[in-house]
Amino acid sequence: MERQSDIRHEYLNGEVFAMTSASLRHNTIVSNLAGILYVQLRGRPCRAYVADLRLRVTKTGLYTYPDLVVVCGEPQLADAHLDTLLNPTLIVEVLSPSTEATDRGRKFAHYRMIESLAEVVLVSQERVQVERFSRQPEGGWLLFDASRLEDRLQLASIACELPLADVYEGSVARPAES
Asked: What percentage of residues in the chain have a pLDDT greater than 90?
């Protein structure tokens, strides 16, 4: 059904949820992120994919569309349709007021079950704030928070960095509250 639909959906435990369209600010940030990572990953064995590549969390059955994923090495795909990724190294979600609670809670809980996943990045579109969660050797997740335009967030799993001024260029996000 999903492959024939003009609307993207998330799927979990027999329930289908239509996904809403993204704002101009959201799309600006996702485009900026894709451009920043493309330049840094060029010629390396990692590749960034945006929005329309479906992700399946095999252990939980969640099918979803992260805003951006990076895969290092050969992508593992669910079937011959080549549209459902199984092995992300990094996932980025740009938070909107309507999805923030789900992205931080339910989705992040599912994402943590992906064995290949090393980092999750949550980017606020309302204010300058980027949070990086890194999987630790003992299995926990460590948070690093960046909230100033002059900050540069290091992504160890893919040996890249995100200059926040570039992430938010053209998005008119306000500074984080102290």
From this structure: 67
